[in-house]
């Protein structure tokens, strides 16, 4: 069995790549999926459908186009990793976690200790809390290969 | 039909009371439910089960106890209102919105215009975005009484 | 048991009232629900949230506000009656029928014989096709009272 | 991941072929499915089961046979594109959209601006509204390849 | 809690009445629902919608009208009792049992010992097999009152 | 797409083989599944688990073992064909049809005209009624290849 | 809102009564449901359907009759409390917990510290672990009254 | 069709290997999945995430990490075999069985006759009870190959 792992959240550090590299180094039977992580591209995803005057509708259109991708990938994943950085609001990461919780998709949170308190609801429904990408790799290795 | 409306999110202003008062003034057929909004009480919800050394596990225990209440109330609501203030992380509000989205519960977001961009994913799945409690009252009046 | 009947579709004739009157005359154990049928009110349902420049977004906002009501009522009904008139597109009626079909809600279509062909997919998933409100009343009487 | 895209609606123009060609030109990882689009064949799909006297039952039988195909394909798709032309009732397209909405399948509508108003309920549940097949190709390219 | 019990199957003996009387004698918290058991009325349930030439379509129309009632009542019941007599095909009873099995509704079969073999699939998914209405009353008494 | 077709019901004539042969002759993209159709083997499916004194429990054990197979295959099929012969009770066929109806699996009934009346509930939820295996082959050809 | 609390597990001590008394003392909006806790009655629940030679089938019949009650009550509860005593196998309690977990029903475990290790899987899916009935009363008070 | 069989429960004897060997000897179309059966590894599955002071939280963390694997595999299996040994509590096995029951996954129990009574609820929802691995192999052979 190939496991599909959805990587959600923060896009300003290379945590995705670290996890992917770590899993490839161990040749884990894992496929990774993700939202579009190019900030520019993501914000302008709906522009092809016509320009908008208001920021709200531009964001709205792009967010819906992105949701075609993200909701489908979340639905199809076996496990999700949801990363919260120390900057920015990252409400979309918490939103993805809520979707996972309601769909009964196991997810692992990845964040520093100093934001434990505001993330307590998100962590309470998670299957694990990691602070470093390497820990996630270890978990995925154990979960998918029983080693 | 009585409509049950779950009020999620920010607990530092009186937006809940404004909506409740506005609906009562119009005698709308609406019942309100909510998480425990007393910050202290919420943080210590799990303390009766024994003290914890680490903050993570104390938060974890309390968050799970709170989830018995919140997950049940979200499941039982007809509509949710999710409020984002201008301060704090409020990841639990975005998390609730994700649960609503996955459970196909219609929700209305309530937030100022200056956080439109970080909330675009949450708003894109919402049925409406309001900036003032009075607008939410108007929506609930229209939705529940067709007036 | 009270049966809840959702009345969907055409708003230019008094078919809703005929069904309601007919059921009341027979004191059937039936409650009726419906979208907002005041055309003006329905089109402007989202205006309280702020004005829009483009017709598309005004319609979009109002349609979403209306959907809070209609999707909830369809989900809560036992049976739906979907009426197609001879004028206008009435895509919302066919859309409601599709929702009923996917949610396994039994529905009765009400339309003239001359539009049997374009409605064949909608009728094929319906539990009955009636041409007059009086027939719907008879069906509801039989279904809810076994008489 | 291969994405399966269901193409629903109008059968009198070559919009399906334009989308298929556009996606093939970009070698997108997309498979297309569709109802039977040969009008004659579709109308006579049930004839092999015996002739009918009444038009209603002939349509009924054929529509049910067609539904074996369409309902299965909609259930198996990742995304749907629903096309509304300027002629004919096309209630089956709105019906398909309703099924998608209830099954939580993301769908894109494809129609001209002059029918925005009658399609407002269908568009309000859609993830995007396009006016040209080329835009749909762009959306599919972005959604499936993150480019 | 009131328990709703759906009584399905054979209509030529008074087993329904025996169960109802037995439960009333013990004042059990039980409500009974059932298909229309008047054979004539059931067969002509669709006649109000217009006459049919062929027996198949007359049966078809009436069966669908009856299904509005039966499918809704099965969905709303807590327990079903499915009775098989020694005469007739009674495929509708086995059909109802299949619906119960797939919807995870517990059902009790009620039939003589000599048809144990052809009913083995139906019995294998049942929660109990009774041979007399009095046994069903005892089971309902135990199940609903813990006595 | 390969379509999986579950063949349910009567085991005394070669209708299964006729359908399989007809589909192979046309090279349809169809896989067939079925219960164990060897009567002896089916009745003794549970004997390996130990002998039983009573017929009821022997049947019960075997029926449950068979259900591991049949329920799984029905859940995994795209379409079912349910065959009713003119002899025997065949309650398991009607039971399978009920399961299909509740799981929203489209099914085709295959039976002679003289049992239209007792099968009216089963037929009313079917997508088509055929009287000959050749018709089923035609339907499958049309449904799976659009020809 | 009245909360329904299912009390599952050990029947040899008065933990159920302690919880019920504690909740009544605080006038909590809570209704309690439970399996039949009279051991004798539970073991002989199926005897009315006829005697059995083998212990396995007697247990089997009674367990299925009991399941009509327990599965329905679990499905209808808002919260479950699952109690593990220090004696006996109590596999039915762990079985009920598994059902709750899969149905997304929040449950609280109630057991001593010395069986933490063998219960780790059951506890990991629970919303809280209590060691005394009084703690459960406190949790229910907090969860249902926000006090 | 390949069948996926989840092997749950006791880890101190070689019953898993016996079943796997038996199925391979007969070249059955069966894939086996399982929890991590190395006791040490399983207990320390969460240690990579940081050490814990209390046994409860160490168990809790490891059990959740293990659940990422087990819940996913149970969800993906076609059939489960749940083994109860004569020693230890094995509540996790009963817990898995409850999950299977609620998810409508057919499962076979494997245990000695002397624990029939405490396992009656678990057995009552099972599709078969076997006392030896060889019987399970026979069942899987019959179920998957119809031989």
Strand and helix map with partners:
The structure is a homooctamer of 147-residue chains.
Chain A lengths: L2 E7 L5 H11 L4 E5 L4 H5 L11 H22 L2 E5 L7 H13 L3 E4 L9 H5 L3 E3 L2 H13 L2
Parallel strand pairs in A: 1-2, 1-3, 3-4, 4-5
Helix pairs in contact in A: 1-6
Strand order of the largest sheet of chain A: 2-1-3-4-5
String of helices and strands of chain A: EHEHHEHEHEH
Please give the count of helices of chain A.
6
| Helix and strand composition category of chain A | alpha/beta
Low-confidence stretches of chain A: none
Form type of chain A:
globular
Specify which chain pair forms the largest interface.
A-B, 40 and 40 residues
Q: What does it look like?
A:
- The structure is a homooctamer of 147-residue chains.
- In chain A, strands 2-1-3-4-5 form a 5-stranded parallel beta sheet, with helices on both faces.
- With 147 residues, chain A is of the alpha/beta class.
- In chain A, 47% of the residues lie in helices and 16% in strands.
- In chain A, strand 3 (79-83), helix 4 (91-103) and strand 4 (107-110) form a beta-alpha-beta unit.
- Chain A has helices spanning 15-25, 39-43, 55-76, 91-103, 120-124, 133-145; strands at 3-9, 30-34, 79-83, 107-110, 128-130.
- The two termini of chain A are 15 Å apart.
- Chains in contact: A-B, A-C, A-D, A-H, B-C, B-G, B-H, C-D, C-E, D-E, D-F, E-F, E-G, F-G, F-H, G-H.
- The A-B interface holds A 55-56, 59-60, 62-64, 66-67, 70, 84, 88-103, 113, 115-125, 129 and B 55-56, 59-60, 62-64, 66-67, 70, 84, 88-103, 113, 115-125, 129.
């Amino acid at each position: 069995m190939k496991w599909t792992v959805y990587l959600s959240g923060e896009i300003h550090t290379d945590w995705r790549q670290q996890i992917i590299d770590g899993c490839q180094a161990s040749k884990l039977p894992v496929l990774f999926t993700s939202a579009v992580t190019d900030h520019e591209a993501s914000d302008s995803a709906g522009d092809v459908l016509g320009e908008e005057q208001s920021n709200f509708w531009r964001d709205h259109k792009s967010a819906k186009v992105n949701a075609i991708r993200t909701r489908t990938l979340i639905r199809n994943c076996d496990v999700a990793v949801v990363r919260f950085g120390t900057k920015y609001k990252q409400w979309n990461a918490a939103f993805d976690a809520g979707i996972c919780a309601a769909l009964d998709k196991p997810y692992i949170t990845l964040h520093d200790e100093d934001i434990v308190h505001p993330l307590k609801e998100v962590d309470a429904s998670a299957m694990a809390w990691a602070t470093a990408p390497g820990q996630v790799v270890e978990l995925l290795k154990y979960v998918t290969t029983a080693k």
